[in-house]
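Q: Structure tokens for this one, please.
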Amino acid sequence: MKLRRRNFLHLAAGAAALPPNSRFAWAQAYPTRPVRIIVGFAPGGTADIMARLIGQWLSERLGQPFIMENRPGGGTNIATQAVLRAPADGHTLLMVGPTQADQRDALRQTEFPFHP
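A: Here is the predicted structure, written as tokens:
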């Protein structure tokens, strides 16, 4: 294949316009501090045991402690409110069951009709 001068100049100009090294988007280290897992059920229940097992596994893999915090009551609304008020930095997680995962109204509200 013969490369004409015009095609060569186009390819050379395109190569010169590209940065000399490729740029990668590196993720930040996560987690940078202990992570809280808030469970909306009483201690010793199925959700609490699952959260503790998941937290232990994540702690071993990520090298940071995962702290369980049980906030039962209000159909998990108290725990949901605590997570909503936490900073949005990914260091506060909510553990709920499949029924509570569909509570769209609780996630939209900023104030509940009771005081936790």
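A few notes: The mean pLDDT is 80. The two ends are 76 Å apart (CA to CA).
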